[in-house]
Amino acid sequence: MFKHWKEILEAQQRFALAPSTYYAPQVDIYKGVPVVLDSDCLAAKFGVVDSIACCALVFYRVFDFNGQRTVPKIVVNNAFASLDADLKKAFFEHEIAHLELHSDLQVGFSIAKIEDIIFGKGSYLQKEYEADYHAFKQVGISMIKALETFLASDLNWQSKRLIKHRIKRLQQLA
Hints:
The protein is of the alpha+beta class. The chain has two domains: 1-82, no CATH class; 83-174, no CATH class. 51% of the residues lie in helices and 17% in strands. The chain is built from seven helices and four strands; from the N terminus they run αββαββααααα. It has a four-stranded mixed sheet. A hairpin with a 2-residue loop joins strand 1 and strand 2. Helix 1 (5-17) packs across helix 2 and helix 5 packs across helix 7 (157-173).
């Protein structure tokens, strides 16, 4: 079912032993949100291997003298570093939109269901459409180009179908 299943399984095992997001090196900061390099996190949580450029918004718990709080990070992988600056900005804006619009993502992340994949209508894609539109308002056509770049990578058929729905929706709005 999954492409790259062995790489993903190995990353999940490493991530379970030591959740690297806590210790991942910070490579940037975007609109006040730390950007960290953590390929294992993206593979373990989202099933995206290091050869596919990816970023995602991840929340982690911090314990300090004030108790427990949740802190967002934008997690990227090594392939993401090779993207052009305008594509990176588009992806970052998409993740910032999730932070601003979807506070429920702090509890967990949405999973695409059959209505998302087949029909392009569902709660998962609705959140993606909203974040895409927010990013599109910030960076314009670069958001569509960013999704097309992601679509051209070695994704599974379900992910490709979801990306196609998102591109189609943005093109209708453009």
